[in-house]
Design goal:
Strand content: 5-15%
Number of strands: 7
Order of helices and strands: HHEHHHEHEEEEHEHHHHHHH
CATH topology of the largest domain: Cathepsin B, Chain A
Number of domains: 2
Distance between the termini: 86 Å
CATH class of the largest domain: Alpha Beta
CATH architecture of the largest domain: Alpha-Beta Complex
């Protein structure tokens, strides 16, 4: 009787499961990514073990101990989510946050993407945090398939998975190469991941990610700006100017883009066009000290020629 009560409670508090079962998505009934590597975790190292599995799946050989040195915090006896995200970028991968929907997890699996998830296997008042790799599902049997801890393969009912995932704020990542986009990613989530990659010193991979994003979202101004910024960082000034001009076609009133275009044009030796661009930036935002400093610097460059 007790087990029945627990099951009923799980179903009653799992609205996404009910919605999923009432309106099944057009995806395969069963998926299991059996080729995802498995590393049994050492004590408190569920994060490094799970992350190592996905990084190896993406083609880079790494051991959990190597990742533990990057993410493990002894005082916490575990790894924070921000450390996990940062570590994945060190391997040139894009950690894209998913939207918190159970259906999105299934769609990613159907697209061949294992999902890095955080679970709270206890209760909110006394949490038991645990990182796992979601590698599959069985829609007919209504369960998820996971690599978890010391278990190469476990199953967990949809409703129970949803409940433990909900307690962890529906946190889930898909890690992809910079030439790929997760099946359910939003433009905002994908570009946030690309910006993060750029900020940790991977301009080439970030540049590829921005270019990749434009295949799906060709009119996204932020993607064009990112493409321009990374091209500039790589010394590809013609491409940078082209990307900035495309961004300004979408919205010509972005003063910071005129500022960046001015620098790209100056690097190409187009001094008059460069000064015209920074003048436009100041016309849009006349009190911006950064733009004033840019004008002074660009004028000095012209005089130095």
């Amino acid at each position: 009787m007790l087990s029945l009560l627990v099951l009923l409670t799980a179903c009653a508090t799992s609205p996404q499961t009910r919605q999923l079962l009432d309106n099944p998505p057009a995806i395969p009934q069963r998926v299991e990514l059996t080729e995802v590597p498995f590393f049994p975790q050492q004590e408190y190292h569920c994060g490094p073990a799970a992350l190592a599995g996905i990084i190896n799946y993406r083609g880079t050989a790494v051991q959990p101990d190597e990742i533990a040195r990057l993410v493990y915090i002894p005082e916490l006896k575990g790894s924070l989510r921000v450390e996990i995200v940062a570590a994945s970028r060190q391997f040139g991968l894009l950690p894209v946050r998913l939207d918190g929907m159970l259906e999105s997890l299934l769609r990613e699996l159907a697209a061949g993407n294992p999902v890095f998830v955080l679970q709270n296997l206890a209760i909110d008042a006394y949490p038991l945090w645990h990182y796992e790799i979601l590698i599959g599902y069985d829609f007919e049997q209504r369960y998820m398939i996971l690599r978890s801890g010391v278990n190469r393969r476990i199953t967990r009912p949809f409703a129970l998975f949803e409940k433990t995932w909900q307690r962890a704020d529906h946190w889930a990542l898909v890690l992809v190469d910079s030439d790929s986009i997760p099946a359910t990613a939003s433009a905002a989530a994908y570009l946030d991941a690309a910006i993060g990659l750029e900020q940790v010193g991977h301009p080439r991979s970030a540049h590829q990610a921005y270019a990749t994003s434009l295949r799906r979202w060709p009119d996204n101004q932020l993607a064009h700006i990112g493409l321009g910024n990374t091209a500039y960082a790589l010394g590809e000034f013609t491409d940078a100017a082209s990307a900035y001009r495309r961004a300004l076609q979408i919205d010509p009133d972005k003063a910071e883009v005129w500022n960046n275009l001015a620098y790209a044009l100056a690097r190409l030796g187009e001094r008059e066009s460069s000064l015209a661009a920074i003048a436009r930036a100041l016309e849009l935002d006349p009190d911006n000290q950064n733009f004033r400093d840019s004008r002074a610097e660009l004028e000095d460059w012209k005089q130095a020629d």
